[in-house]
Amino acid sequence: MCTLSEASSSSSRLLFRQLFEKESSTFTYLLAYVGHPDRPALLVDPVDKTVERDLSLIKDLGLKLTYALNTHVHADHVTGTGLIKGMMPDVISVISKASNAKADLHVEAGDKIVFGKLFLEVRATPGHTAGCVTYVTGEGADQPHPRLAFTGDALLIRGCGRTDFQGGSSQQLYKSVHSQIFTLPKDTFVYPAHDYKGFTVSTVGEEIKFNPSLTKDEGTFQGIMENLNLSYPKMMDVAVPANLVCGLQDLVAKV
Ligand SMILES: [Fe+2]
């Protein structure tokens, strides 16, 4: 982790932190461009329970939070985006257009989210949900190398998100991962939305080789996904409605 932050910051002035919320095993990522006095920053997949921690870190590091991004409408936790906007109304909330969720900015494949001289590129990776996207750091001499891919639940370390609800499709997920993530340079870091085994990061090359289900042919993959027999997520009935309105921002006003 330390090595990556230092290596990237020397070439591209990226400040990068991986944060963890233990109840839902969710990773939140903080990225900032520190080559300009404004130090613009963004969060990927903030969680309501850890918003205070994240904003305090942002303050400590002297960053200006500009964007709060979600990779998709989560079913296992409430996004922190609504709380962040309640405290910092100028922060722009971002989610995909295909998610049908409320946000200030709806993104589609090919869009760029710019912070300072750095940017994230949006790749559509539906399959876990219909609106899942992967955010990938830019390509170019002044962008971080290796690249960083924030894959949400489309690709996990040695796994992937379930495909049995929220418009999920195992066929679509297989296609998304193979065409949009496995085509990235092999040294691209894979930073997922969750890990349940203690892993923190992988690479595209590593997952192409060792992912137990996505390395199989499409038919076998579909068979695996259809026979997982997973239980109904305990937070689903709370999390999905809240996340469709950006995580409580409007609900709070009505309570
Ligand atoms: Fe999810």
From TrEMBL:
Reaction(s) catalysed by this chain's protein: S-sulfanylglutathione + O2 + H2O = sulfite + glutathione + 2 H(+)
Gene Ontology CC: mitochondrion
SUPFAM superfamilies attached to this UniProt entry: Metallo-hydrolase/oxidoreductase
Localization terms from the record: Mitochondrion
GO molecular function (one): metal ion binding
Record has RNA-binding as a keyword: no
Taxonomy, superkingdom: Eukaryota
Domain Metallo-beta-lactamase, chain residue ranges per copy: 25-194
Cofactors that this protein relies on: Fe(2+)
EC number: 1.13.11.18
GO term, biological process aspect, one: glutathione metabolic process
Keyword Iron belongs to the record: yes
Protein name: persulfide dioxygenase
